[in-house]
Amino acid sequence: xxxxxxxxxxxxxxxxxxxxxxxxxxxxxxxxxxxxxxxxxxxxxxxxxxxxxxxxxxxxxxxxxxxxxxxxxxxxxxxxxxxxxxxxxxxxxxxxxxxxxxxxxxxxxxxxxxxxxxxxxxxxxxxxxxxxxxxxxxxxxxxxxxxxxxxxxxxxxxxxxxxxxxxxxxxxxxxxxxxxxxxxxxxxxxxxxxxxxxxxxxxxxxxxxxxxxxxxxxxxxxxxxxxxxxxxxxxxxxxxxxxxxxxxxxxxxxxxxxxxxxxxxxxxxxxxxxxxxxxxxxxxxxxxxxxxxxxxxxxxxxxxxxxxxxxxxxxxxxxxxxxxxxxxxxxxxxxxxxxxxxxxxxxxxxxxxxxxxxxxxxxxxxxxxxxxxxxxxxxxxxxxxxxxxxxxxxxxxxxxxxxxxxxxxxxxxxxxxxxxxxxxxxxxxxxxxxxxxxxxxxxxxxxxxxxxxxxxxxxxxxxxxxxxxxxxxxxxxxxxxxxxxxxxxxxxxxxxxxxxxxxxxxxxxxxxxxxxxxxxxxxxxxxxxxxxxxxxxxxxxxxxxxxxxxxxxxxxxxxxxxxxxxxxxxxxxxxxxxxxxxxxxxxxxxxxxxxxxxxxxxxxxxxxxxxxxxxxxxxxxxxxxxxxxxxxxxxxxxxxxxxxxxxxxxxxxxxxxxxxxxxxxxxxxxxxxxxxxxxxxxxxxxxxxxxxxxxxxxxxxxxxxxxxxxxxxxxxxxxxxxxxxxxxxxxxxxxxxxxxxxxxxxxxxxxxxxxxxxxxxxxxxxxxxxxxxxxxxxxxxxxxxxxxxxxxxxxxxxxxxxxxxxxxxxxxxxxxxxxxxxxxxxxxxxxxxxxxxxxxxxxxxxxxxxxxxxxxxxxxxxxxxxxxxxxxxxxxxxxxxxxxxxxxxxxxxxxxxxxxxxxxxxxxxxxxxxxxxxxxxxxxxxxxxxxxxxxxxxxxxxxxxxxxxxxxxxxxxxxxxxxxxxxxxxxxxxxxxxxxxxxxxxxxxxxxxxxxxxxxxxxxxxxxxxx
Length: 1011
What we know:
Elements: E1 2-6, H1 12-23, E2 25-26, E3 29-30, E4 35-39, H2 42-59, E5 68-71, H3 89-106, H4 108-111, H5 124-143, H6 148-161, H7 166-189, H8 195-204, E6 213-217, H9 224-232, E7 237-242, H10 259-264, E8 274-277, H11 280-293, E9 303-306, H12 313-322, E10 327-329, E11 333-334, H13 339-353, H14 356-364, H15 366-375, H16 384-395, H17 439-443, H18 449-460, H19 472-481, H20 501-516, H21 526-546, H22 558-569, E12 573-574, E13 583-586, H23 588-591, E14 598-601, H24 621-626, H25 632-649, E15 652-658, H26 678-688, H27 694-697, E16 728-730, H28 731-739, H29 741-749, H30 764-779, H31 789-808, H32 814-839, E17 842-849, E18 855-860, E19 863-868, E20 871-877, E21 882-889, H33 897-901, E22 902-903, E23 906-907, H34 911-923, E24 936-942, E25 951-954, H35 959-977, H36 996-999
Parallel strand pairs: 1-7, 4-5, 4-6, 6-7, 8-15, 9-13, 9-14, 10-13, 14-15, 16-19, 21-24
Antiparallel strand pairs: 2-3, 11-12, 17-20, 18-19, 20-21, 22-23, 24-25
């Protein structure tokens, strides 16, 4: 084997192309047909082909290209006859899984040495994951000509001489060896060959041969199998070593790095090219500062950004796009981020459990949303997603079963149909069949939710080959012509149906065709490119599924086959569209063979570059070293060489390391920086672990800064006049204005609100609403003035069940069941107090009281305004001739009215005082100045979290304080009419998070640059 040292003063592939053209140039004719060239990766292969064409054509336009340029991963198969087809990765995992099954059946006690419990026979996701783990271990060992039996023998020998603990490890490897034998037998039975075993067989039978000139390009690390193969044809092998010949002793006979010698080598890394940055975002900023310093001396295609770890790519992408620089991530876009993958992932999640959240996630997929819109009438396209959100917010469904609740209930409804004493009280709140005459009631029903369900289900039915299912067009036509029903028509499919992967592949292809059609081979648009490449990869997977031998073919459900496909796709990437005029973002392994003159490398931190394995459940680093497997020392040598070669061959290099990870955890610089003399190491330690330069690390926010401007454009937008007159105001609005005029403006003038589809339990509002409904129905029942606590308790318990069933259906979330019992505890405590309250002479006269037309009219500076309010309960005491206006409170703290309404003597909430005003003016307007008599009392019925603190809490305000409250209300009205809404209150009031983005509650301040 010949080693040829190509000096590293110019890029490796350029030097390689020059060498090959020179070697195969015979009197002006370039003929490389005998050359079999092995390179590091596909990127290097493409670039070498370009350079050979360029340089050879200059000498001989009719030159002959090499016989083959390939990667080392496929190179061995060119040197020996392949007697059997190679098993795919999926087939290998299935064979390992079946081997586990056989071993567990024959020797269950042995399997327990490997895993406490194997996945169930129907848990194909778990079984294939276990098969993948074992296949990975087998692949790594076989590549170095080691099998499981050899590792067991090594452990046995070590346990005799040094470590008794390795005796148990030897037993574990014995089991793995038995498993490996069963695995090979499974493949033999279907006449397939594991590629590693095929190579081992060829080596054992001396089948490697070639009449080609084998040329190795920059292969700095080879496993033992690859070395053995090269040794068998060594007379025809030339290893091109990208380094000066003066460093020949740093490389072995194959041209690979010598780990021991590289550990002692001092890297020539100038201090001025090394930079530290605090966070990943700061690393991206530092890379942009370096680009700025290049001052346009390089074109975009002459610049490369290296990313040893993908964690920094999003930060780089964002900042490059922000400053308008085109870039191309050569590693490509993860398929896991593509539309088709996300669609299948959502579908798999939904089919597994049919949960409501998974259903709405599927429907929110842009392609699914578009598909649904195409089936609906144009006037319904913009409302169905909002209706789904509203449905969820009101009823918090857990699963989707085709049955739907009737409608949301309004706070103003009397809920008389829910009276627990009525026989109809337990009728479920579902869609009614008959047409109602009340148009308003019909408009409030969930008319689109079951319709969208039917459309989606009939698309999914395609996956189950449910040909008898109606088309979406028929479903929509039928639904629009008939009144809404409580049940959707169920599609004819069974989610537990099992099929072979081959059959599922055919149906999945048909399912996706409805959205994406046939793959388009070429497209100038990125979105179409991504879809086309994903469909191409799926076509390859379909073929893989079809090629599974019958004895290894599993029977899977739809969710299982989708999960399997997604796992096989998850680590793959979509190649970028070609554009030579963009900055390339490359991984660490591609940097050595790239020929861009300007390179910045980010993420040069320990554990990343060089990578290291500190723990391995099967092969710790010490065992790796003794078995001559890849270990940390080999990784270090490989990366030390790559960094040295990269610096030597580039004109402009910048190396950046971070001090903290994305999560904020501390990081250490790469030990490559410390491969220097003692003085330089000490200086770098002092420098690296000092404070970073915060000024250079400051982030740049897109659109926040303009030339010549120092002030951030991130400002709270000032209110704009709405032009709406203030004709009426609700009692609860006063509190919002007193807390923050600006947030009042957003909520009540602009009417900005959100529909929350993320809650999984009753929030404070829903919890209180359910409690209020029960108490409202109690206040209207024949039990309302009962003095028997047990009687009241019985009614409330029954009424609670009716209300919760009406609001959340028959089978709701377990957490709601728990919250229902929490409400029950509070109501039981209330029953005791209510009985005593009634015994004291209080009678419930009104529930949900409001004036005859819903408001009272007052005059404010000559302009009338309606004040609207609804009082939870009005009691009358027959002994004192006083009215008691009560408001139910279910807050956890159970605060007194005084603490809620006033702070440091100032009114911050006017609810109860305004109730008194509304009640007095509407009920006793003919009796003169009734409020001065003090015959109206105010208070809370407090039902806090601690049921022992349940109480009737009366407010102790005097009439003068109530007059002050009225004056405060008048002043609020005046300010609203004058549109005094700015600035926002700071700090923000509690429970105002929905407006935090507009109000910049968590704004990042931009510091002015230092002079």
